[in-house]
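yo

u said u wanted the structure for the complex thing, so here. seqs first:
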Amino acid sequence: MMRYGIVLILAVVWLAVSASYTVPNLVLGLIVGALVTFLVREQSGEAPKVRPFAVVSLFILFVKELLLSAWKVAKLVVSPKMNLRPGIFAYPLKVETDFEITLLANLITLTPGTLSVDVSDDRRTLFVHAIDCADIDAARRDIETGFERKIMEAFR
Amino acid sequence: MIDILQNITAGLLLLGGAAFILTATLGLVRLPDLYTRMHAASKAGTVGSCVMLIALVFVPGADGVAGRVAAGVLFFLLTAPVSAHLLAKAAYVSGVRPSASSVADELKTTSARYKAK
Amino acid sequence: MSFDALFLQICGAIALVILSLSFLIVAFRVIVGPTLPDRVLALDTMTVVAIGFIAVAAAMTGLVVYADIAIALGLVGFLATVAFSRFIIASRGNADRDVGNEEHVRK
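structre next:
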């Protein structure tokens, strides 16, 4: 079931990239998409449950945080005296599946002052590099009440 | 009238995007270690290139470019964190440690994978 | 040429100057290093600067098909960074040889 969804998404992306919204082009996109998903058929995972509105809300939060974080980094870089306290902290994961961990790690990377570095082998801990690591507990709390909760709302 | 607004928006977006890219590269030089540099490159850099692509949507006479730009922006947003994460992990595995000004390194103290070193 | 078209051209020219400056700064980081991951990160940022150049060229000439080139370049840059990262992970046994700055590289 998930494979058909992916084929459809690939076909839509193909339409957007080739900028010719015609039926033959859509068919071509569908055929190529089916071929590609056939090639990687062994790698496909479990399909997550998706709540569309929560996903949209997650996306809006993501764009907002990304702009904010780029602004913060820019401000930090051009300030004459950089007062940095960087460090790597461990974050105990509540989300469990590979898909959710990947999504959370990617979102963390594009948000203010944090960058995910590694996941422990048992998939319970995410190691996050923070540009301002002075208050580790506050950083953990931000992730927990921000993205992790949103992800759980969107995909459970 | 629409043309005037479009031209001005496109010009301002080009300037804004270029400014973000400049801060990303400045960060690359000024920040103390690889991991902090990665913050600058992955965030300001991504936003910079996305904003510059979005500027193309407003260029007068640009038909059919909006879909392509949307696909490109989505693609940049999806790939930037992946490459940043992979490079950070590769750097840590290969032995690059955070600079001496760091206040914590819980990856070193808690992860069994790196204790042996 | 109308005022607003001229405004776009001026903005594009200023953006080109800013991007050239960025390019020099990144080149400095590529040369100085001190470690291989630093250089890879700088090369990745160089792709971003190049995407900026292409976007300005597209906006100034009005040939928006250049957007395709920018997207393709982003794709190649992503693949290059991923390949380099895998390479760094695979060759970690040789990491000691890449030591350039003792403060950053500690074993």
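The mean pLDDT of chain B is 81. The helical segments of chain B are 2-30, 34-57, 65-93, 106-110, 112-115.
cya
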